[in-house]
Design a protein that fits this description.
Layout: H1 3-14, H2 29-32, H3 39-44, E1 46-50, H4 67-72, H5 77-86, H6 107-116, E2 121-127, H7 154-164, E3 168-174, H8 181-188, H9 195-212, E4 216-220, H10 227-230, H11 232-241, E5 250-251, E6 283-288, H12 308-320, E7 323-329, H13 339-355, E8 363-370, E9 374-379, E10 382-387, E11 395-398, E12 403-411, E13 414-418, E14 421-423, E15 430-433, E16 445-452
Parallel strand pairs: 1-2, 1-7, 2-3, 3-4, 4-5, 6-7
Antiparallel strand pairs: 8-9, 9-10, 10-16, 11-15, 12-13, 12-16, 14-15
């Protein structure tokens, strides 16, 4: 561990116990949950999630990022047969690490794709549940990307490229590790001991923060033990009070068993979380382009990859309901991004290039949706109606907006052309006469409604 990290880790552990030393945020959920969410996150709306690690080498089966656990512990027949056919007897999961070479990994190309997608932040896997770190963690033994495999600081390389393009950097970090002997000792004690937390989890989190200064920490792997085992509140108090990112950093809600959707910064709740009504707390939906896995799968079929209309529909729903949309890709072990993933991301960026005003920095409107085909967002004095089905006979009826003497309607594809409209009733609703349907790969179009209430 770096000397500076040791000192900072001591601060995390002891700062709250020094008499007379009162931090702005105390190490309890009541204080931490009251911290305002940094503004940049709510305004960003859309980010890219990247799952990449040793699991990308076998790259096989549903939830391929869980390959080790499902092969070794669950002994899933499909994975057992896969290993018998393709690898010699006695082959261990750790033997995959030298094959994780990332020989074609070019962080500049990745960052260009992410920028072109319209994303405003990127969340990169620093360490998944397998424990392999994508940076030279000093407490990872040799189970890291500098000592084996790529022989590179993958986190540092991507961080530099992402920031060069003015994108916010987020780091995913798994708190637990399936087969780490220190974690298994703590688990056997009923989590009464904290050897793994003291020597691995917290030092790595402090190292990530002080070395790479992420704008977001996406915590995971917390669900087997309570937050008191992880010392989560102590870490977050240091993060919010004294860390180098204290004023900008955003955190999620996965900090211990029972914490998700209850404590932390914004709420992930569960993977692919999709609330049925407008939440009263900032939230994020993480969704993978490959609907069967977060990590890369060599057995992926095109029919299992989200198409652009389904991505746009998902994004629009999430934003209209006040959330952020975190769309995941799983690169190949050699560092290549599958062409179908790149195509989806670039096409989404093209759609956002026309309609982004209805997405970025918007707020939920008083009505979120009508007729299951129109979603609303709001920004300042403007309301956006995002339509997912082009109206028959080119006449669109909206019942929710109330017009005023200053009402104007434009289609974002033709921003300089005012559309004709008439009231549905004397007090509410618009009948809009639409122009010829412009092409949209996403099968979604945005109306800008000015002067409506």
């Amino acid at each position: 561990m770096r000397p500076t990290c040791i000192l900072l880790f001591m601060c995390v552990t002891f700062l709250m116990w020094i008499p007379g030393c009162t931090a702005r945020y105390e190490a309890n959920w009541g204080s931490l949950d009251a911290r305002p969410l940094p503004r940049w996150f709510d305004e960003a709306k859309f980010g890219i999630f990247v799952h990449w690690g040793v699991f990308s080498v076998p790259g096989f089966g549903q939830f391929s990022e869980w390959f080790w656990q499902r092969w070794h512990s669950e002994k899933q027949p499909e994975l057992v047969e896969f290993m018998k056919k393709n690898y010699p007897p006695g082959f261990k999961y750790t033997d995959f690490a030298p094959e994780f070479r990332a020989e074609f990994f070019d962080p500049e190309i990745w960052a260009d794709i992410f920028k072109a997608s319209g994303a405003r932040y990127v969340v990169f896997t620093s360490k998944h549940h397998e424990g392999f770190t994508n940076w030279p963690s000093a407490v990872s033994w040799n189970w890291n990307s500098m000592d084996v495999g790529p022989h590179r600081d993958l986190v540092g390389d991507l961080a530099a490229a992402v920031r060069k393009r003015s994108l916010h950097l987020g780091l995913y970090h798994s708190m637990y590790e399936w087969y780490n002997p220190l974690y298994l000792l703590d688990k056997a004690s009923g989590f009464q001991s904290q050897k793994f937390v003291a020597s691995k989890t917290l030092p790595e989190l402090v190292d990530l923060v002080t070395t790479y200064k992420p704008d977001l920490i996406w915590s995971d792997g917390d669900w087997e033990a309570p937050d008191t085992y992880w010392n989560s509140t102590q870490f977050l108090a240091w993060l919010y009070n004294d860390s180098p990112v204290k004023d900008v950093v955003v955190t999620n809600d996965r900090w211990g068993k029972g914490c998700y959707c209850k404590h932390g910064g914004y709420y992930n709740c569960a993977d692919r979380y999709t609330p049925g009504k407008l939440p009263d707390h900032k939230w994020e939906k993480c969704q993978s382009l490959d609907t069967r896995s977060w990590g890369y799968r060599r057995d992926m079929k095109l029919s299992e990859v989200m198409n652009l209309p389904s991505i746009v529909k998902d994004l629009v729903y999430v934003v209209a309901m006040g959330g952020n949309y975190l769309l995941n890709i799983g690169p190949m072990a050699d560092g290549m991004i599958a062409p179908v993933f790149e195509e989806r991301l670039r096409d989404l960026g093209a759609w956002l290039g026309i309609n982004g005003e209805a997405i970025y920095a918007t707020k939920p409107w008083r009505v979120q949706m009508e007729n299951s085909t129109v979603w609303y967002t709001a920004k300042n004095n403007t309301v956006h109606a995002i339509i997912l089905h082009w109206p028959s006979k080119q006449i669109l009826q909206l019942t929710a907006p109330r017009m005023t003497g200053a009402t104007n309607v434009t289609l974002m594809d033709y921003p300089d052309v005012l559309l004709k409209w008439e009231p549905l009733t004397p007090t509410a609703g618009l009948r809009i006469f639409m122009p010829a349907m412009p092409k949209s790969l996403g099968n979604a179009w945005c109306l800008k409604l000015e002067g409506v209430v």
